[in-house]
Structure formats: structure tokens, C-alpha cells
Amino acid sequence: MRLTDFRELLYAEFGTLRGDTLMSDHRLAAFGATGDQAIESGVDPKDVWRALCSEFDVPKSRW
């Protein structure tokens, strides 16, 4: 997944402010890192998106 596509999904689901906050402050259990840290370390944004969706109970139809 391209990073621009990831950000579009993130902002559509959580809003710009909350989306940015989740990426910088929320530690994802699947990676032991924040979303920003995971992507910076090479994790595919699609996998970060799925982890966020899982942890925040986003309906699977929007994953």
C-alpha cells in the first residue's frame, strides 16, 4: 500500500488530528512500536492499517 493511500484511509476513519495522534503516540501490539515507527522501520503501511483497524474495532468491511 502506498503511504498516501494509507493516510487517506487513516484520516477518513479517524480524522486528521486523531489519526496523526494515533500514529505518533499509540503503540501497536503487533509491532511493539507506534505506527510511525513501524512504517519507518519498513513495515508495509497495509499491515499497520490492519493493526490499527483491529485494535480500534474498525469494521472489517473498511479494512
Question: What structural keywords apply?
Answer:
mainly alpha, 63 residues, DUF3046 domain-containing protein, 4 helices, DUF3046
Give the termini separation: 12 Å
Which shape, going by the Cα principal axes? globular
* Main sheet: strands, sense, barrel: 2 strands, antiparallel
Fraction of residues in β-strands: 5-15%
Biggest sheet, strands in spatial order? 1-2
Count every helix, treating DSSP H or I runs of 4 or more residues as helices: 4
Taking all Cα atoms into account, the compactness measure Rg is 10 Å
**Structural class by helix and strand composition:** mainly alpha
Order of helices and strands: HHEEHH
Catalogue the unreliable spans: none
The overall strand count is 2
Number of domains: 1
Kindly state the mean pLDDT as a whole number? 97
Task: Summarize the SSE layout with pairings.
Blueprint: H1 3-14, H2 16-25, E1 27-28, E2 33-34, H3 35-40, H4 45-55
Antiparallel strand pairs: 1-2
Structure notes:
This protein is mostly helical and 63 residues long. The protein has one domain (3-62). It has 4 helices and 2 strands, in the order H-H-E-E-H-H. It has helices spanning 3-14, 16-25, 35-40, 45-55, and strands at residues 27-28, 33-34. The chain has a two-stranded antiparallel ribbon with strand order 1-2. Helix 1 (3-14) packs across helix 2 (16-25). It starts with a helix and ends in an 8-residue tail after the last helix. The model has no long low-confidence stretch (mean pLDDT 97).
